[in-house]
Amino acid sequence: MLRIYSFFVALFLTTLLTAQVQSPSEFLGYEIGTQFSRHADVVRYFEHVAENSDLVTYQTYGKTNERRPLTYAVITTTTNHNNLENIRKANLEQTGIASGNSGTADKAIVWLSYNVHGNEASSTEASMATLYELVTTKKDWLENTVVIIDPCVNPDGRDRYANWFNQVASTPYDPAQVAAEHDEPWPGGRPNHYLFDLNRDWAWASQVESQQRLKVYNKWMPHVHVDFHEQGINSPYYFAPAAEPFNEIITDWQQEFQVEIGKNHARYFDKEGWLFFTGESFDLLYPSYGDTYPMFMGAIGMTYEQAGHGRAGLGIDTDQGFELTLVDRVAHHKTTGLSTIEISSANAGKLNTQFKDYFNTSGLKYKSYVLSGNLDNLKELATLLDRHEIKYGFSSNGKASGFSYTSNGQGSMSYDMAMVVSTNQPKGKMVKALLEPDAKLSTPLTYDITAWSLPHAYGLNAVASTSLVTANAADPFTTNNSNLNANAAGYIAKWNSLEDAKLLAALLKEGIKVRFTEKPFANNGISYERGSLVITKSDNKGRTDFNEVVNTLSRKHNRILNATNTSFSTSGPDFGSSSMKLINPPKIALLKGEGTSSLSYGATWYFFEQTLGYPATSIDTGNLGRVDLEEFDVLVMPSGWYGSVLNDSTLDKVKDFVRGGGKVIAIANAVGSFAGKSGFNLKRNSNSSDDDDTSSDDNLIPYAERENASTTNFITGSIFKTKVDPTHPMAFGYDDTYYSLKLGSNSYSYLDKGFNVSYIPEEVTNVAGFAGDNAKAKLSKSLIFGEERMGRGSVIYMVDDPLFRAFWHNGKLFFANAIFLTNNGKYSL
Asked: Containing domain of residue 531, as a range?
């Protein structure tokens, strides 16, 4: 009798609480879809629902760069909420990620992520409508389902868009495509604060949003994950199943259940007369998307794409003759979100069974990936693996055989110390995806880059072994606990990693004068390579706090400095030699705005502020003609299209700046701005195949085959082996080989007058990713990084972007070298 009474009391209280929950429209004071809600209002609504429904808990998991909260709601029944920790643990235990016996894993866990691209803003509006439906009319689905809703993955980008639109939109809104409210200004709301595309950052986790979200994701490991997006205004709705190519670690079940989910969506869309498409455009190869990353973690990962994007506003006239409204867009996203929960609930048992099976890694070819090389680079890789909670160990004094990343074939590697990342762990399939030598492609027509192998990205020697390699050595990463010698004549630091550049940047900011050596030398029996830093008392005579500052900064950056009592070298140049050059603390200008790639600018801005910790002044491209460049030492041009920016007058101004001792660093597409221009040595590469008259043959290719045929001219994010001149200051810290991530087929000839620092020789070696035959042929004898002297200054060409998405770690020292060491002679004592 008491049980029955308790049941009805609980039912009464639940009904009472539900009755107090307001709809989004009631709470906000406007119909959802008739305004763009600011992020703070979205947070307030989720807080309201959590306060008035015992089906919802709402938490903050972090903050953005602009201090907006990152949040998520957990929605399930009261009974499940009371057992939520056991449900979560049981899910991890069935995969082997956690140990214990918390109970049977039988609940479906569905995670819905909204608004990763800030100006694809309909999805956050839909998140509120979806939440309300779940706690009012769809509660039955929650009996065996836990739903996680992240209402806005990118609050900074969303508010950038929503605030702009709310400022400029007409009342009532204007649906004409030419109206100002459909012309979002640079850089747009798509990226986050640092202008990163967060939907490409899941695996690399360079941004605070990604890093904090992964902690929660790893805590839950959902069975289904949906990433809500928008596309062009003339496309209908896209949902799963996805397009090829599929990464080979994706299972048949994952593909099959995507089809079942798509069929369930289609029922609702057909009923309403809404158009959609499936199986096109959005593939599952690149591991860093909001659909692929969950796939590689065993979930059913999906992208849903609604027509609209930042251009659509509250309503826009499409080319197809109808008006697309925000109300429509919200309705579509709400429908697929609820449909996903419905079919997941109906298949909760199967989802758990297949999810558990995914974590069986016994069938993987490679059992261990063995990596050796620079300890700083290994430590950076370890930091990344830690973010994904991937296990690794270390092995000492050994030899590994298998696929050699260095020789791009079978080989072996001897090592004193190596990191071992094995696939006999629950996340072994993600290990394969991140570390595999070359992802298999069923078609070269992909949505993103086709190569990302982390051994090359981190500049490490590696072997993929079919045998399990024992890893029982101690952690090799050391901590600098040494005290510096107050009586020393100076200190010497190695130069072979980005961590060394961070120390240099910190010293220069503190006003400590630093030299670097252009030649190898030995001091006190220790040998030092080119680029090594020399910090002397003589150069810093006025600094009574010299030892204290150097000691503090070396500890902060965990750098070992060797004290020396003499500036006399046992071989090579002494400290006073002209080969020991004082480093000018450069004043840096960084171009932004129209003409620049917002993503490239953002990655460069992020590098200076968050990675290197050295100031750069951002200058709008529209002001370049008016800025006094003599106030700066370096002008950095991110990738972009500078045709309208570098007119004759502005180009002459840039030339004068360089001739006077300034330095221009042009990245990726910015390099093309100087090709063939008067006064510059840079020329686009030509290839004999370009001169052949094949247009008539091309015109005989059938229409349906043209797209595939055109791939012979494509390079879609592929890794190439390059030669390096390690005696040039831009290459200090490198050996004679560098693996470069090439994003396109742009090709430039060797510099006739200048320094070819990194280049592709006559024989082109494509070690991973897709590159069409014509595109590869065009790369023969082509420049990657080079320096051209002009007067007292330099123009530095970086054909491949070393800062791309902040994940190609091994390229970052090239950029630091270009800033600090290359032709850096304007120092006055």
From this structure: 490-582
Distance (Å, whole) CA 468 – CA 422: 7
User: How many C-beta neighbours within 10 Å does residue 219 have?
Assistant: 12
Based on its alpha-carbon atoms, the radius of gyration of the chain, rounded to whole angstroms, reads 29
For residue 791, being part of any structural domain is answered with yes
Count other Cβ atoms within 10 Å, centred on residue 454.
Answer: 23
Residue at which a domain ends, from 431, 465, 499: 465
Instruction: For tokens 């029922």, name the residue.
Output: 267
- Residue 719's nearest CA partner among 667, 638, 787, 779 is 779
Q: Say how far apart CA 259 and CA 264 lie, in whole Å.
A: 9
Helices (DSSP H) in 207-347: which residue ranges?
208-220, 252-272, 292-296, 309-312, 326-346
How many CA within 13 A on the CB side of residue 574?
6
What tens digit of pLDDT does each residue of 14-57 get?
Answer: 454 556 999 999 999 999 999 999 999 999 999 999 999 999 99
Bridge-partner residues for 16, per DSSP? none
Across 529-681, where does the E strand assignment appear?
Answer: 533-536, 562-564, 580-582, 588-592, 617-620, 634-637, 663-667
Nearest-CA neighbor of 72 among 85, 84, 57, 86? 57
Cis peptide before 761 (omega within 30 of 0): no
Same domain, 567 and 602: no
* CA pair distance 69, 39, nearest whole angstrom: 9
Domain total in the chain: 4
- Say if residue 61 is in the same domain as residue 106: yes
Question: Rounded to an integer, what distance in angstroms lies between the CA atom of residue 402 and that of residue 462?
Answer: 9
Q: Which residues of 382-411 are buried (b: 16+ CB within 10 A; e: fewer)?
A: bebbebbbbbbbbbeebebebbbbbebeee
- Tokens matching residue 351: 């989802």
What is the share, in percent, of the chain residues with pLDDT greater than 90?
Answer: 90
What whole-number distance in Å separates Cα of residue 390 and Cα of residue 367?
A: 14
Contact 442, 246 (CB under 8 A): yes
pTM value is 0.94
Encode pLDDT of 595-610 as tens digits. 999 999 999 999 999 9
What whole-number distance in Å separates Cα of residue 610 and Cα of residue 599? Answer: 16
What is the Cβ-side half-sphere exposure of residue 237, based on CA atoms within 13 angstroms? 28
Tell me if 545 is assigned to some domain. Answer: yes
Task: For CA atoms 420, 424, 426, 432, give the dihedral sign.
Answer: positive
Residue 683, CA distances (Å) to 274, 288, 396, 782, 823 in order:
52, 35, 48, 10, 22
Q: Are 578 and 592 contained in the same domain?
A: no
Q: Taken in order 507, 510, 512, 515, is the CA torsion positive or negative?
A: positive
What is the distance between the alpha carbons of residues 165 and 188, in angstroms, rounded to a whole number? 11
Clarify whether residues 353 and 437 are in a common domain. Answer: no
Pair 310, 231: CB distance under 8 Å: no
